[in-house]
Structures are given as structure tokens and as C-alpha cells.
Amino acid sequence: ETFLRPEDHFLPPDNYQEQPAVGVAHRTSPTNIGLALLACLAAVDLGLCRKEKALSLIAQTLATVERLPKWNGHLYNWYDTATLTVLPPAYVSSVDSGNFAGCLIALREGLLEYGALDLAERANALLKAISFEPLYDKKRRLFYIGVDVDKGAPTPGWYDLLASEARQTSYIAVARGEVPRKHWRSLGRALVEKDGYRGLASWTGTMFEYLMPLLIMRNYENTLFDETYSFVVRVQKKYAKHHGIPWGISESGFSALDFNLNYQYKAFGVPELGLKRGLANDMVTAPYAAILALGVDAPGVAENIKKMADYGAEGLWGFYEAIDFTPSRLEKNARYHIVKSYMAHHQGMCL
């Protein structure tokens, strides 16, 4: 009952072959929850779900969120979805909390449009309870990566670049007056150049860092970010074309398994965009990362995801997590490996 049954609404692709399900990861995060709530609104707007069904799902989700253990109004980074207990370590992530807060703002406005005032008030109550001040380092004028609640101490690391997924946290906290405006000016604005164009540098050069906040933050023409978005897509396209693969490089699962036989996960990026070293050592493309660029280059995205489908990257529930082209991880004579998993986080961003 939690999800739309695809057989009610969609036909599988012609080349689809049913694969046995290995299992479900019974955990969720603030970002997953926020995107799940917005996915309900998106499903209605796209004609995939009745409004009454979506509102029922939102109400059930909010009721569960209201019951979850919290820290200064923040959701913890991981919960067991079967027991609702906090998964160790008890950690609060600055970026995940900003994602959740941003989703609540968008959810509230969508519910008001639907006339669901009671639900909008409940979403707003969760939003108002979140305090960003405990995550802020006043001396450095930056947000910590997060706080280890068990240890009672912040992680010794900070979000210091404007081009990061954490800028949504910064934006909301400044707008609410919880941190000073000078924090926004403290975020690094180093530029990188390629083929006569320039854009903001990020840490790993991922589409997620650049484009995830654009899902719910407004863009303004002829600004530094507006130029950066176009620049990033242009650089990603050229890098992928040079290597003969579809574009859309970001953090994702890849063709390596952990002890529990789950695909491992890390950030993959474009060397020309990221400050981190070693980005050229891997070659992994993720459909969700390309779909994030729909607001920047819709025709280019459509052409690109058709190529991904030709590789076999499309399954019954949407596009699979990634296509791994890294030679050192491929079986003999294989050109690529399809990472056949679905992440709620990435599917939610696609919707």
C-alpha cells in the first residue's frame, strides 16, 4: 500500500526480463523521507496517482515522522524502517537536515495548493521545530558536516564551498535568521575554466553537488549559479563523449559488493570540476544524475537517457542505479556492468 503498483499504471519495456528481488534495505534517512513526501505531490501532478491517495500517504508518513526520535527537531541520519529505532551511530547530518527542511517547505506549499490545511500545518510544525544553530560553527562561520549525538560533539569537518549540496541548508538557515548573512559570503567561490567557460568548483565534481538543490531552489538568469549549471552540464557531456559513455557522473552505487552482498556506494565526479584528487580513476554513470539536469538541458537529457536505456539500464521500477564502465571492476570481455539496484533517494529526485 505504500507504493503505487506499477502494473496498475505502466507496461514494462519490451526488453524487460523479471529479476528476482534480492532484498530491501530496511533503513531510511531525512532526505529519503523528504523526497518521498514530495514524490506524492509529483505523482499527482504527473497524473500517476489520485490526489486522495497521495494525501493519505502523506498523512501516514507525517504521522510516523512525528513519532520518530529527534535531536533539536532534527531527524537522525538513519532509522530502521521496521522498528523506527535510530541506527547507530546516532548522527545528525547538516546536509540531510537541510534537505528535509527544504522538502517540508515545498510540501507545505503544495498542500496549501491542494487545500489540505491540516497537513500543511503539521508539515510546518515539523519545520519550525528544526534548529540549525547547533550545527553551526560561529568561529569559522560554516556548518559542521554533522553532529555525533552519542559523543556529544560535531564532526571535525565543515561545508565550505558554495557549490555543494549543503547550500540548501545554508540558504534556509540564513533566510530564517538562525545564522548571520555573512555565513553565505564565507562559502568558497573558486572558479574552474574549460573551453573558455567558467563555473564554480565543487569538491568531487558530481551532478548531485551542483544540481540537487536546484530541484527546489529557484534559479535566476545571468547569475553565477545559472552560468555554473550550464557549464557543469557542458563539461559532463564533453568528458563522457571523450570516454564514449553516456553522461551523468555523480555519487552512486558501483560494481563492487560489501560483506552483505549489497552494492557499495561512493562519489564519482569529473576531474575538471572537482577539487578532490583521483576522480579519473573510475568511470561510472548514473541515470538519476543525468535526469537532475532536466531543468538545465531537457532535450540533452532525453537523448542521453535513451542511450542509457539502450545499454539495458531501464528496469520495471525505472532506471537502475548506475552503469559501471571501470575496466578494473569488469568481468573478462565485458564493456560495462549494470548496477541493478534502486535507491529511493535517487528515484525520488527523478520524480
Description:
The chain has 351 residues and is of the alpha+beta class. Helix content is 37%, strand content 15%. It contains eleven helices and 19 strands. It has a three-stranded antiparallel sheet. It has a three-stranded antiparallel sheet with strand order 6-7-10, with no helix packed on it. The chain has a three-stranded antiparallel sheet with strand order 15-18-19. A hairpin with a 2-residue loop joins strand 11 and strand 12. Helix 1 packs parallel to helix 3 and helix 3 runs antiparallel to helix 4. 41% of the residues are buried. The N terminus is likely disordered.
| Gyration radius over CA | 20 Å
Main sheet record:
3 strands, antiparallel
In N-to-C order, the SSE pattern is EHHEEEEHHEEEEEHHEEHHEEEHHEEEEH
* Overall average pLDDT: 92
Provide a compact summary of the structure.
Helices cover 37% and strands 15% of the residues. With 351 residues, it is an alpha+beta fold. The strands form eight sheets. A three-stranded antiparallel β-sheet has the order 5-8-9. A three-stranded antiparallel β-sheet has the order 6-7-10, with no helix packed on it. A three-stranded antiparallel β-sheet has the order 15-18-19.
